[in-house]
From TrEMBL:
InterPro entries: ABC_transp_permease, BCAA_transport_permease
Membrane topology: Multi-pass membrane protein
Protein name stated in the entry: Branched-chain amino acid ABC transporter permease
Gene Ontology CC annotations of this record: plasma membrane
Family: Belongs to the binding-protein-dependent transport system permease family. LivHM subfamily.
Organism placement in taxonomy: Bacteria, Bacillati, Actinomycetota, Actinomycetes, Micrococcales
GO molecular function list: transmembrane transporter activity
Keyword Cell membrane in record: yes
Amino acid sequence: MIIQGLIDAISTGALYGLAALGIGLVFGVMRLANFAHGEIITIAAYTLVLTWHWGAVISLALAIAASVLLALVLEFAVFRRMRRADASTLLIASFGLSFLLQRVYEIVFGNNVRTAAVAPGLARSVEIGGVRVQMLSLVTIVVAGLLLLVLHQFLNRSSLGLQVQAASTDFATARLLGVRANKVIALTFGISGALAAAVAFALVVQTGAVSPTFGVNITVLALIGAVIGGIDKLGSAVVGGFVVGFVSSILTSYLPGDVVNFRNAFVFAVVMVILILKPSGLLVRGPVLERA
């Protein structure tokens, strides 16, 4: 039972780590804590639920396309025109976009929850060493690990990846050295959209349902994780997201039934203490960098 709970917690942590990575990528380049990332997750989830009967490959491809396209549209239509705005203005803009997109989803898809059996085979359990583990937990851990590995290789071994890292470290200097701002920022938004689709898939398989506010909860918790880890650094953001997801899962498993609904309150309390003691994040030395 303990091992099963531990595997589930690692799976949840990996999922939150992916969500935190998508948020951290955009923050690194634009200093934008994008609350509308939740709505990017939501559009991928709606696509999966509405198209799964067309086949897994087609549905997954459409979900990735939808989330990447929405991320690029938000970047081009809104954030590109606000690139020189300060961080607080960008934050408010992302809040506004989040609420706007939720209302758009209500108009297009309705307020009622949409349901579908997405990848039902992953809901079954398998026995490993005498322990029964849900297939989805194992798949989530493997997929998250592969995505993190691929992205790590891309960022460290490709020209575009190195440009993204340079822009994340010092955007103004990177532009002076020839990094094309529009291309790099659009790329980070596109990658964050693809990561959002992966997160949406795992969540939809778990719940089988999607609503206009589907992506809000995981986005808030992933952002909190990114902040306590150190949102200024991608690796730290992932670790922070993993920690929040892991702790949230453990609390869900072991808190008494009449208290478990308040698990997020415990998470927020821990976050406040951490930020008071170390405002720059647990894994970051010194203050968070400001965009030049």
